[in-house]
Amino acid sequence: MKNSKIFDNNFYSTYYYSNIISNILTGDPDTIGFLSNFRENVGSSIFLPYQKESALHSFCRSVISDFLHEDMTAYDEEDWKLCKINSYFKFRPYIDNAFSVFGLNWSFDEFLEGKSNHEFSDLEEYYEEVLITGYFEEVVNRIADEVFYVIFNNRGLMNDFNELVAGNLDLYRNDNEDSDLDVSSLFTSKGTLKRAHIPQWAKNAVFHRDKGQCTFCLKEISGVLTPNSKRHYDHMVPLAEGGLNDVSNLQLLCGTCNQTKGRTRTPPSLKYIKWY
What we know:
Elements: H1 14-25, H2 33-42, H3 55-85, H4 94-101, H5 108-111, H6 120-133, H7 135-151, H8 155-167, H9 169-175, H10 200-209, E1 232-235, E2 250-253, H11 255-261
Helix pairs in contact: 1-7, 2-3, 3-7
């Protein structure tokens, strides 16, 4: 029986899109429009506590969808012209490379079967078919899972994402005032999110990412060497300052470091243990 927690990681354009997301989160002014798109796409679900489809997952999917669509359109228009000029080159849509990598049984050649005198309008129809059938969404989801797998390890980037959301929390609420999903009970009278129970799957993810060590002082708190050590799952961006109840906003701390940090917004630790 297939384990649903295991997935094939092809690393298809993973670092390309990871870099784009990093640029957005670190303030690249040329990418500011993608933040507005994300607010529209994510809706009120961003306020729901500890969804496995985390706020960061949704952000990755939104950005990748926008960029992939732009990339394939721009690339295919240029490549189509080139192939028309030089018949030596065979046209292959940008998206078909992803279909091949991810083992999705769909291609432009199949779409064109029985057609002659191919025109650019055929390619435009193919784009529509790719969107309607859900193949485009499937590619976005596969890439987003791979990107999340890579960037979740970067606590600094996790902090940047949550800082960004915290700084625009009122905008997210205003954008979704007419949403069918009523999230008013999740907020305090001050307009920040109430503390929510952290599920075990979220604790497990953060514990293994942080190697069972306090991310500040690197004390071992796995329970293997020091059985009485307590683990604290700390919000990098405090809820009182607009933080989310999201797995991307958690880090592992020991009791001493958690007490020292308190409710202040402290930069996350960038200390990591080398592989060897």
